[in-house]
Amino acid sequence: MLLAACGSGAPANNSAQHAPARQTSNTLCANPDAVSGLLISERSRQNGGQEQPGQPPGPVSVPSAAEARAIATTVCGLPPIPGQQEGCQSPALATMFLLTFRTKVGALPVVTIQASDCLRVTGAGPVRWAKATLALTQSLHAIVHHEPPVIFAS
């Protein structure tokens, strides 16, 4: 079960490292509870942005709003990417997940999760780091490839 809470309110201490990320109203983490649906795609790219040949699995729709919200909450609970990881280089072949969260008023900006070395998460507000929750990328892979069910529950 993957579940984490989005940071909100004042930080517990004055350390910038523990300060909550500032969100804008059009990002996922501004209100993950507003999520009503999710479409997940997986892409492989070579350095330089060239899409890999072959047929990647098609986009997969997450069947329940509760599961989509649980995934959103997990993404929002990821820590900010450490400074030393911000400039890390992607391997020659990088796999990424594209998460398109929907709300009643439309789609939010696409969240991209690099499923390789850097494990960088963009599109949900400040850049986050998926290394803290490696099960997230494994679970997204299982959903896209129709492997045994992964349960995201609240």
Architecture overview:
- The N and C termini lie close together (8 Å).
- Strands 1, 2, 3, 4, 5, 6 and 7 form a seven-stranded antiparallel β-sheet that branches.
- The chain has one domain.
- Strand 3 and strand 4 form a beta hairpin.
- The protein contains three helices and seven strands; from the N terminus they run ββααβββββα.
- The N terminus is likely disordered.
- The longest helix has 12 residues.
Strand portion, in percent? 15-25%
E-strand count? 7
* Rg calc: 15 Å
User: How many independent structural domains?
Assistant: 1
**Multimerization status:** single chain
Q: Measure the end-to-end span.
A: 8 Å
- Summed over residues and divided by their number, the pLDDT gives a mean of 73
Poorly predicted sequence stretches spanning 5 or more consecutive residues: 1-24
Task: State the major sheet.
Answer: 7 strands, antiparallel
Count of DSSP H/I helices: 3
Map the helices and strands.
Layout: E1 35-46, E2 60-61, H1 65-76, H2 83-86, E3 93-103, E4 106-107, E5 111-114, E6 120-122, E7 128-129, H3 134-144
Antiparallel strand pairs: 1-2, 1-3, 3-4, 3-5, 5-6, 6-7
